[in-house]
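okkk here we go again. third time trying to get the adenosine-5'-triphosphate bound version out, last two times i messed up the smiles copy paste (missing a bracket lol). double checked this time i swear
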Amino acid sequence: MAPKRKAQTQEVAAEDGFELELEEAALSDQETYDKVRNQFDAVALSKRARAERGTDAASFMFKKCDQWDSNLKPDHMNRPLWIDDAGRIILESFSPIFDEAQDFLINIAEPQSRVSRMHEYSLTTHSLFAAVSVGHSTKEIMQRLEKYSKTPLSPTLCKFIEGSTSSFGKAKIVLKKTLSYIESDDPTILQRLLRDPQIAQCRADTTDGLIQEAAPQIGVMAIPGTKLAAGAKQVTQTTEPDQNPDNPQNVQNPGDMIAALREDDEDEEVAQVHSFQINKADRENVIKRCLAIGLPLTEEYDFNNDDVNPNLEIDLQPHAQIRYYQEKALSKMFSNSRARSGIIVLPCGAGKTLVGITAACGVKKSALVLCTSAMSAVQWRAEFLKWSNISPDDIAVFTAENKQAFPRQAGIIISTYTMITGSKTRSYDSEKVMKFITEREWGLLIADEVHVVPANIFKKVTYNIASHAKLGLTATLLREDDKIEDLNFLIGPKLYEANWQELSEQGHIARVQCAEVWCQMTPEFYSEWLKPSTVQKRAMLSIMNPRKFQACEFLINYHEARGDKIIVFSDNVYALEKYARKLKKAYIYGGTPQAERLRILENFQHNEAINTIFLSKIGDTSLDLPEATCLIQISSHYGSRRQEAQRLGRILRAKRRNDEGFNAFFYSLVSKDTDEMYYSSKRQAFLVDQGYAFKVITRLEGIEQQPTLSFRTPQERRELLLEVSLANESELGEERIAGDLFGSKFASKGGKAKRAGARRTAGTLSDLSGGQDMAYIETNKSRNKELKKKGVQNNFLRKMQTSHSNLKKANK
Ligand SMILES: Nc1ncnc2c1ncn2[C@@H]1O[C@H](COP(=O)(O)OP(=O)(O)OP(=O)(O)O)[C@@H](O)[C@H]1O
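finally!!
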């Protein structure tokens, strides 16, 4: 071996223990030496790479970060979290303690993306408020993050967590006789708020100083972080079986202890609450401002101790078994025996309605439910009657067709956002019901599909309706207009957000295969598309692309042969009609008469010969068709992520979802090299973040072998092009539906949709899914009595009641 080569080898190999092996190899032939040398280089390279990347399974996926590289805890392999200074959290879903960490993170942070191996969360001021409001203390949040984190929490992050959580719960917003007050047991907090000019100008009362009154007994269960809450905590602790007679706490009964706590307290103000009234219209501004100056307001309703508003006789039916994630979500709302305002996020078809109904059964006071359409209102009523024992007389629907209120002191009204906030002159009957609604206090306001409600509409709702607690329900906490933050102010923090993939693995929603099918434009359509033209015309050429038509026809044939029931969605009514007529399938759009809609939907559900229907965007939401197992989207609303998720929701509830090996299918047909490609990927962003993988299909296997597909000859394609070219501009636009809150302007940025030309009026949506034909389950009085005698039937409500009576006992 040459001395130079030997020296080099010794130098580099020494530190790796390769020295001997290389030396031996160097003595043999060149080939053996090169082999060993290559092995050595590979090891050295991977060692260097590991040193750069970190030694665990995932860190190499991230950019070099000094904070992480230099501070890794020795046992970081066993910890599942990466947290940076800005509160961005990466959770390894393959960690053995993933479930535990996920359960915790969902309470304190906002899920951003939950794909299969990595989940991403963000710690935000809102998420931390929500965390404290559901009972996590600052200390606990930091301790548990420290436990799961691979690196020590940075001082910047700790400061942020402390800053966001420590001032929470010092003041709250409460409702008294339909008026809003800011209340605190510490007058200095309110004085501090009133020194702020923006808050001061929202004050409505003219009291000199603050309004002062005796604190209600409920003070001992007060908001986290206050002295009284600490008292309540101790009370709860003493109810646990600690028999040690040396423990001084066991000498007193809990009631005495509260009294003692109060007597011991030198500060007499504890028994007092202070408040000032604010203008109804300024509610949102005050909430926002309080947050900005670091004193966020809480909104909780102590319904158990509300003796002013009459109780409503309502309980869940014994057959209603709420699922674990529904219970988890509700327990965030009801911990502490109070109803906390906030938003619950569950995937489409996961049962938000039952969550709302259970909440109403928990509060047992008058409730107002707001939906996006009259059809949903009718469905909500039917669901209330199905899942609860409420008397049908006590539950009314207030829509354009039904203008009812309830006859007794307490009840439920289900209405739509448009009915409550509409600016049009109301009929006499509507005016009467509106007066009924606005002049009373509501225990609970349930806001369905809350993410689509424009902020100004929801402001009007909170202005018009005096409700103690608000529950927002949604599947996708996203809007294209970035106004989602407003919901935090108008309703409350997000209380719970379920994981789509987890629910689908457990069979609560269907497993779905998603695919984007790329369809080449035919030459004649593409050369027309390339010419300068209007947005509508180009969009129409992409939708009517004969290859897309063939792909749709092929997929329908394929899935019908498999026994699937197929819904084809087209936002564009011109295309909807053309496709459906050519393929001899039934279709429904806004203008389809009611009787025909019902007939089509019934046939789709029960007739084995009708396996495909075409729907315009009126079928995007609230349509409960559990028979559907396959969706094909031929035209959609630009880049709306919400529409994509909601359409997917139509098959997540598939009846057959628990059949072995069952998969539902979701296809988006996209004309290649057109705007559709861009919008399609934008639309998928939300679902991809929920862990759905979109396969791109560039060629449908077997499509060439189908001789019967439409538009096979150039002659047919030219005729189609001529038809599309001659179509009236106004026919090509997007469907507009009266009273549709999911309308264009909320669904896409850039206002392109506003240019849409066609205006087709749906009249009423109320009948689309056969709402009127739903059989209401009549619950007679004797059955109610029987249920009452038996007490609360549902486990969850029973748990709530037990915890409340424990607290009551403790307070006595
Ligand atoms: N705990 C439960 N037990 C049995 N069935 C349930 C339960 N929860 C929900 N369901 C059923 O699941 C289906 C979907 O529920 P629901 O319509 O409330 O979903 P959703 O979340 O509101 O969906 P979308 O957002 O699409 O409107 C309904 O048929 C409902 O009866």
